[in-house]
Amino acid sequence: MALSELKIKNLKPRDKRYLVSDGQGLYIAVMPTGEKYWYYRTWENGKEHKHSLGRYPDIGLKEARELKYSAKGREKETPTLFSAAAEEWYKTRCVPSNTPRVLDDKRSRLDRYILPQFGGRDIRSISQQEIVAHARKIQEGKGANLGQRVKSMIAQIFRYAIAAGLCEWNPAAQAGDALSPYRATTHRSTIRTEAQARELLKAIDGYDGNPVARVALLLLAYTFVRPSELRLARWPEIDFEECEWRIPAERMKMRREHLVPLSPQVIALFTALRDITQHPEFCFIMPFRKHPMSATVIQHTLVKLGYGAGKATPHSFRGMASTLLNEHGFAPDVIERQLAHVETNAVRAAYNRAEYMDERRRMMQWWGDYLDGLRG
Fold first, then answer.
1. Which of 101, 142, 178, 251 is packed most tightly, with the most Cβ within 10 A?
2. Which CATH number does the domain housing residue 156 bear?
3. Are 363 and 325 in contact (CB under 8 A)?
4. Quick check: 212 and 293 in contact, CB under 8 A?
């Protein structure tokens, strides 16, 4: 059945892209984002070819029909830019299914290493050789792993573009075979003893640089949450009266809400932080900025304190807490639950719905007093 402007306006997005035909090869694709794109099919030597006409409503129904039939219209057909496909892929595939930290990494990689090279190109004009050459250049300057990740992201964008009818093949699919392989890396914390913990805490206490970063390091030590969970914290999550920090599921690695009992030491740190930042929403926000503290600030502060690569990372506080709490006799299940490690046994996980809250509160209070003792 032929389309009308009213029918097109009433087409609602679904979980997956779907097509609605106008007849004789012309159809409109409705994306999960709600955007709509015109395409038409032609056949040559028994092989189907898809052609992009542009986005609706930039191109209306009447104009789309004219472009389909008019040779002049086909000459005017605008190419699909790689940047348009990439942004569509990011909004449709990445945003709904990734944590803020992962989204930051993907957005940074896209903006720094992919769009400047290919963004302004017709997606159908990009060759496998160009992708290999670009990824090799990144590997030479930034390392094998980054080059492979960039290649992988380009391949994902092309896979999405093929499904959306924007192109017919994926030139990045086999490009990885021409690149240096991934190199396995391990990041082990060296903060595993009481003496090492004392040395690190005293170094933090003696830091006279960025006060927001200093509080962040201390809170990582006292709460041992993941760095991304800390730096994206919001004030409504902190209950100063109940002494609880409720981290929503969408910010957790395992997509499960996490409760952090707050010792008086942590309450004091958050109170001091609020006086420093004075921001109505985000806890960790740098002066004169509109966005939360970046992922690199904490790591750079550790480097300034003499804890560079191989000595400690922002995740080291989790290993430090796990080791020392186990050494001091706390139940492994209680420690693991406070670390937000999800129970792999479904029956046991259901049984432990109570989450050991009383034990966790006692443990976090003991931990706060213990760290105070190490700091002297």
1. 251
2. 1.10.150.130
3. yes
4. yes
Q: What number is the average pLDDT over the span 251-260?
A: 83
In the Cβ-directed half-sphere of 112, how many Cα atoms lie within 13 Å?
Answer: 12
Residue-level length of the chain:
376
Which tens digits make up the pLDDT trace of 16-59? Answer: 888 888 887 788 888 887 888 887 777 666 666 677 677 788 77
Closest CA to 298 of 368, 194, 210: 210
State which of 125, 150, 178 marks the end of a domain.
178
**Token match 């139940």: residue?**
331
Beta strands in the chain, from DSSP E residues, in sequence order: 18-23, 26-30, 36-44, 47-56, 238-239, 244-247, 258-261
Indicate the number of domains in the chain.
Answer: 3
Name the one residue in this structure whose structure tokens are 């097109």.
Answer: 8
Tell me the backbone φ, ψ of residue 125, rounded to 5 degrees: -95, -5
Instruction: For 204-257, give the DSSP string.
Output: HHT--S-HHHHHHHHHHHHH---HHHHHT-BGGGEETTTTEEEE-GGGSTTS--
User: Kindly report the CA angle at 75 between 72 and 77, in degrees rounded to 5?
Assistant: 115
What local confidence, expressed as pLDDT, does residue 242 receive?
92
Lowest mean pLDDT among 133-142, 247-256, 314-323: 247-256
Q: Which residues contact 248 (CB under 8 A, 6 or more apart)?
A: 237, 257
How does pLDDT run across 81-92, given as a tens digit for each residue?
898 899 999 998
Range of the structural domain that residue 103 is part of: 83-178
The DSSP symbol for 59 reads S
Structure confidence by residue, pLDDT tens digits, 290-331: 678 887 888 899 999 998 767 888 889 999 999 999 999 998
288-322: buried (b, 16+ CB within 10 Å) or exposed (e) per residue?
eeeebbebebbbebbeebebeeebbbbbbbbbbbb
pLDDT over 90 at 215, yes or no: yes
127 and 103 in a common domain:
yes
